[in-house]
Amino acid sequence: MNQQQLLELDQAIRHWLKGLDDIIPNLIADMHTETKLNKFDLVTNVDRMIQDQFEAFINEHYPDHQLFGEEKNNDLVDAKHGDVWVMDPIDGTANLVKQKTDYCIILSYFSEGEPLLAYIYDYPHHTLYKAIKGEGAFENEVRMPKVAPLHINDAILSYNLYVINEQTQADLKNAAFSYRLIGSCGLDSLRVMKGQFGAHINTNAKPWDISAQFLFSEELGLKMTNLKNEPIDFALGGPFIISNPGCHEAVLEILNRDGGYEVNKNS
Questions:
Q1: Among candidates 44, 63, 54, 110, which has minimal Cα distance to 83?
Q2: Which pairs from 129-132 meet CB under 8 Å and 24+ separation?
Q3: pTM confidence score
Q4: Cα separation, 255 vs 159, whole angstroms
Q5: In sequence order, what are the beta bridge partners of 243?
Q6: Tens digit of pLDDT for each residue in 110-137?
Q7: How far is 261 from 252, CA to CA, in rounded Å?
Q8: Closest residue by Cα to residue 78 from 256, 259, 241, 235
């Protein structure tokens, strides 16, 4: 795919995402919620309908493309070959159910394993963030600047308290300026992209939680690795950090100190 074709594809996807503004309010007004693995792992008709509609869209307009999505069986999807879309139709479903805000849609396009397009749609605020390979990252079509280096002492860090042991939590809090957690991997990551957070850590990220962050990190000069400072397989996910380059190594040093961050590290 040449650059002109990529820009045309971006235009089509932005048009499709904008169409959700007419669909989501009715879905939320008649929202049905189910529990998957545990009480925090929720799915709604909003998640399923958004994903089903996007799958129908690509089947009609891009029949050679595959969808690797949260709310479907992906056994037959070869995510590393061909044209693949990775989708979390609602990232932060618990926030949607409990708060009616702080959730987003994550969508990204990979060709032969390379990220070429990425979108995070903050629907409650009608703000679309996108990245295009080689073109930069944008907030509602306004170019986003690369973030300035941020020392850990000045950084707000984002992570889940329930999966990090008390000593590591204490060390992170002592080293950083403060702590926050929105509860949506996409929105927490966006705070890093905008220079508001120093880092966001997710110890159990699924591919659709972090698919867009690969390209945003490239275009904005951020660090994105696993918690051992190694590259991440986008088709597998796993523990990850997206970080300001100025505090990436300092955060990882604390996470891996004295046996690591896991809650059961001494058991």
A1: 110
A2: 129/190, 129/193, 129/216, 130/10, 130/14, 131/212, 131/215, 131/216, 131/218, 131/219, 131/220, 132/6, 132/7, 132/10, 132/215, 132/219
A3: 0.94
A4: 11
A5: 199, 223
A6: 999 999 999 999 999 999 999 999 999 9
A7: 10
A8: 235
